[in-house]
User: Fold this.
Amino acid sequence: MRAAHTVADIRAAEQALMATLPNGALVQRAASGLAVACARRLGRVYGARVVLLVGSGNNGADALWAGARLARRGAAVTAVCVGEPVADALAALLVAGGRVGAPADSDDADLVVDGIVGIGGRGGLRSAELAVEGEHVVAVDVPSGVDADTGAVTGFAVRAGLTVTFGTSKPGLHVGAGKGHAGRVELVDIGLSAFLPEPAVRLLDAVDVALLLPDPDLGSDKYSRGVLGVVAGSAQYGGAAVLAVGAGIRSGAGMVRYAGHAADQVRARWPEAVVSDSLGQAGRVQAWVVGPGLGTDDAAAALVQEVLAQDVPVLVDADALTLCAEHQDWLRARTAVTLLTPHDREFARFGTEVGNDRIGAARRLATDLGVTVLLKGDATVITDGRSAYVNDTGSAVLASAGSGDVLAGGTGALLAQGLDPLTAGAVGAHLHGRAGTLSADGAATSANLVLQAWPEAVRAVRAGTLDA
Assistant:
């Protein structure tokens, strides 16, 4: 499991670590790891043209010390100073054979190292000329112009192919605009972990998901494996019910009970589902999914209110989110756990826009309503107001009609199997993203194909055949 910490926590941990080390040892650890990553990126160091964009802080010093190591291996290293560089680091580069140059030197470089602004930087860069981008760009700790805590980009910013980050990851590398600017993120261990508190954000890898997935044993039956109830669909949007029920079945629930106005469509597609025309006839469940394709009229509102009145976990999606935004007291009155799964526009119906701080916005809504929030996006945020996960398996291929219905059904099945809403949301989002990638296989996909690929994603995660 990967961890990301806030700037404040990292600064405190760095101070505690440095108190145990000789002067300058920490920067040398960082520079060594950065130089190794740069050499790996280049493939052949001797004769390579490397440009360092050097600011006045520690990131600039890291770049200079790493540049000195590359210069000693035969690289032609040029430092472009956009601030007052750390003197001993610049001297080390010059002694190793590097030189000082101008911004134009980066135009034909084999590798550009961004050491302009560190994790404490706020706001964009002062000029577009500094906002280099490309696969050949390596950012030091965080791309300059990206907020390390939130991922916000409010002006010019570096767009890197690789970000080499030190000690622990930063939330802004994995969420919001920052995710797109960071490229691949590589962590260098500098000995910080013993001094860090609980992380602000966690990211699940495939091995984590495999360990968290519910596993039936020899004594399991259809009831003990979890019974999921689905209230979804309408005369106009019957497909939403079909997708949500199918995802519940394929995500491991022992039984899926359906209640709603798409009974004939669900029965025709999923004969294993237990189908009824009304909520009163549905029977007992361990968790509910309510909302996909339901509509927002008075009858739909009554159904949502009736589901929320039950003392079992409830996943609230789509039209049910719209209704709950109008009746937030329904959520605050609940004693059982609730998982909301909005996209940005649905989130805004609760009173505030998501804005640049996606993790902070989701945390505030979760705390206000006493729920867990799964805020969908290319980097989905899952939080109960205290702990938070960011899922990084998503991609643009999932931005298609019905994809959210599959996520709702699949995650609801995990709730029914006993996972808490924070874990269910994180595991469900991870598998949904994997299924999207597998179903697309380099092309476009559809919600139905994502649904079909869900078991394949589970098998691959369990077999350890997917990269973290």
Summary: The chain has two domains: 2-197, 206-463. The two ends are 9 Å apart (CA to CA). The longest strand covers residues 133-140. The longest helix spans residues 421-440.
